[in-house]
Amino acid sequence: MRCLIVGAGKTGTTALLYAVAQAMGGAPLIHFEERIAGLQPLAPHTATKLLFEHERPDDIAVFGASFERRILLVRDPRDNLVSHLLYTVASHRVQMDDPGWLRTITQLLQRKQKDPASVDLRQFPQLRTPSALLNRVCATNQALATFARAHAGNWFILRYEDMVAGKLDALSAYLGMTVQADARIDPAYQRVARTKGSGDWRHWFTRDDVAHYRPLLEPLMGALGYAGDWTLAEPPLITPEHSWVYFERLVRERRQFFGMPPLALPTPGQPGPETRARISKGDVVNRLVRQFGFKRYLEYNKLDGGKCFSEVVCDSKTLAFIPEHAYLDGATTERLLETVKKVGTGAILTLPQLLERHAGQGFDVILYDPVHVRPEVDLVVRALPALLNPGGILIVHDCNPEDEAITSVKRRPGAWVGETYKAFALLRHYNPGLAFTVDEDFGCGLVWNKGLVLDYPIEADLTYQQFDAQRASYTGLISYHQFLEKTASGNIADLFAAPAAPAPLRFQSAPAPAPRMASQLFWRGPEQDFSEEQALSLPIVLDGNVQVLHFTFPPGVAGIERLRFDPADGILALRLASLELISPKGALMWRWDADAHAGQDWRAVRFCEVEGATLLLTTDSDPQFHPALPASVRARLGAGCSLAVVMTPQPPLVGTLLAALDQVRQGVSNE
């Protein structure tokens, strides 16, 4: 008898093949995942297994006609997805050759095993959008369902769940022989087995996973005859043997198979930088260096963002920092000052200084991790290719924000990508075949220095809603898996080989920026006058939003006798919430008493009550506040101390109207 077994990968076809062969007796000839084209002619006593996704359905139907018995094996798509998540990576040499990819999956599996609800499936790089794995699982199961409907009368449909539960009476009756579920499998194929059970998805899916995957998988489940029960295990339980230990074994065996050296993967709870559980921009850089033989690396990063530099492995590495004095906030000031102590100020370079210092040095790859403010980002991405060798690659970080909240124009605590995505989308608009984004670490935009158009106008703008609706077109988004495949050949042209350019993208004129003024802090020693040489200036945006300014005394400042704070350089209304002097270690030294402002040394300033709130109104172009500081505070003032100001500047029209009303009130009172 000839028996054909067909099923998708990770649906138990190997176990069924050996169970049927054992039931057939008489040492049948076993064909394991051979292609149809090489299986003619067939021996009269044969058990053959085909993977459904390896052949065309029509070819399987025609080929099946030469068998007396035909079995189609199906599995719950949810379990099938979990099984593919753990196993499929072992099938690809390109993934086995990427330590960052393997470390990330291992750490996520360890976290998932320890606390199943803490890690969503979409956190795994194989399932991050766009996910080739998810698309393949869905497409294969849809095609299986279509095949099962078309050939239901000629094929025996066996559910994987029935097989592992030992419910094989109907199959035995169809074959005319008794099939046992515990058949001995060839040791060469035993690595494919994991839990040998069903319903594992109930432990792996989280509530968020159910919300995300249900619309995708439920139609497939119905087509394959599975009920729509989405009840999760309570509590969920994942064993090490069925998660990270299984994965480690696969990695070890497959790297040996591909002739690669052993790779030490993280152990649970391992401290240090290896505990990150996400592909990083450093992994992207290292992949480019390894695959394309790059020798010279430049990183232009935020002052507190140099961690990536230590991750990069390259023959020659250069680090430069972006000046951030205009972007300081309370959460970063102290950390930035500590960084300056370690690295000095010599590596803090404006764009013109960077271009001048490194002109002609010829870098192979440059990583630019911006402060995310336009048009500065646009100007830098247009200028940095001048420092690249022909054919080199510029990487722009934070090009694919997943949440509108982190795209605010103003810097915010925590995750923040600002408007960098707009600048990269505009560059890609003018260079569609030379720029794309790897969908990891908030989006790593890659730009190939090969005939770039860089003199385009940078005034164009787009909304987050526009971007989100056509995200793939604006970014050229690819998954990390696709990135690995495109770099596998070592030919950089393969990396940038892309389908036809997308339809023209929509941009519009950027809105007019909110008007600005400046605040200043002056200081002087005994018998000195206030001067611009001993002053700090920070911009204030007149948009009605709360702003936090930190005036930090630079190195060398000492012997301060008096301070002077100028809230603005023109007529302006603002809500002044607080003024505080902070020590270099963050301790409070002095706080302004807002309730007693009437007796303080404010000049060219009035305080107005508007709807129950106090507004400060400057009445000419040189308003001033001379705080009366205790001698004990003055004695401690020096480098590293800062004046923290929390204010809400009002739009210019508000200040103008209040000033006019104040003049009217003053005129009435004088009469």
From TrEMBL:
Q: Which Gene3D superfamilies match?
A: P-loop containing nucleotide triphosphate hydrolases
Q: What is this protein called?
A: Sulfotransferase family protein
- Which organism is the protein's source? Massilia mucilaginosa
